[in-house]
Design a protein that fits this description.
By secondary structure, this protein is α/β, with parallel strands linked by helices. It has one domain: Nucleotidyltransferase, domain 5 (2-Layer Sandwich). It contains 10 helices and 5 strands, in the order E-H-H-E-E-H-E-H-E-H-H-H-H-H-H. The chain has a 5-stranded mixed sheet with strand order 3-2-1-4-5, sandwiched between helices. Helix 4 links the parallel strand 4 and strand 5. Helix 1 packs across helix 2 and helix 3 packs across helix 4. The chain is globular and about 60 Å long. The model has no long low-confidence stretch (mean pLDDT about 95).
């Protein structure tokens, strides 16, 4: 069984905004401001519609066999098409179970639009049982199936009023949560050339998501306390061995006495 949590980071698609709103030679930051202003006039919120987002980072945490890995797809120079192609190629290769936080409401619809934009094929992802009968009753698209678990949606009982943020849920369970970075800072960081910082932040988000998922699997009875502790240890040992600054910070914010099933060594 292959299972991975995933997260994307996006910025305004200023190419679209410049063309659609006929903004001429305005610089990118001014185009993004205009897009947000128009959106606020329409809806009262500056948050852009999903098709106006451009993907700049995709990170995954993969649990396969006896191994655990966390990384960002491509490299700092990868364009959007390459990132999205790699994401769907991974699904084509492994048919993994997907885990996300608000993936159904944000990440996957954005990936749909952008894959369509770049002409990227993803037949395994879009399988609904026509070619593989196993997907008829358990596929990536249906809200109440388990091949993709949107933790935010599931834990809220599929009720909008019950939704929580990943940051608050992670902290509630004793995990690090967001460490000084947030989605609201991604655009400014991107403009400043901080794609490395964005990729690092995305990786810590998938780690938080994965740790919440492990607690969810314990609640469901799919892991007992010993197995849960083993999964936590695997995550901890893996990211410690990677010895990267943002992951070391994550470990420091996740004390050893919290890296067990109930915060007890």
């Amino acid at each position: 069984m292959h299972c991975f949590s995933f997260d994307i980071e996006t910025v305004p698609d200023v190419e679209f905004g410049r063309n659609y709103f006929e903004l001429g030679d305005l610089p990118d930051d001014k185009v993004a401001t205009a897009m947000s202003f128009k959106r606020q006039q329409e809806t009262g919120s500056e948050f852009l519609p999903l098709h106006q987002h451009r993907v700049v980072a995709i990170s995954v945490a993969l649990r396969s066999g006896d191994n655990f890995r966390v990384w960002s797809l491509g490299d700092e120079a990868s364009d959007e098409a390459d990132l999205i192609r790699r994401f769907f190629d991974g699904i084509e290769r492994y048919s993994p179970d997907l885990v996300s936080w608000n993936g159904s409401g944000f990440d996957l619809p954005v990936l749909h639009y952008r894959a369509l934009r770049h002409g990227i094929q993803a037949p395994r992802y879009w399988e609904m049982g026509d070619n593989d009968r196993d997907f008829k009753w358990n596929n990536y698209l249906s809200r109440f199936h388990w091949r993709h678990v949107d933790l935010m949606d599931v834990l809220a009982g599929f009720q909008n009023r019950g939704r929580a943020s990943l940051d608050q849920m992670a902290v509630l369970l004793g995990f690090p949560g967001k460490l000084g970075m947030s989605g609201a800072k991604v655009w400014d960081t991107y403009l400043a050339g901080g794609i490395r910082e964005i990729r690092d932040y995305c990786e810590t988000d998938v780690l938080n998501t994965w740790l919440v998922y492990l607690r969810f699997e314990y609640m469901r009875g799919n892991l007992d306390a010993a197995a849960l502790d083993g999964e936590f240890k695997l995550v901890r040992d893996t990211i410690a061995a990677m010895d990267e600054a943002h992951l070391n910070e994550f470990l420091e914010a996740w004390p050893a006495n919290q890296a067990t099933a109930f915060g007890q060594e």
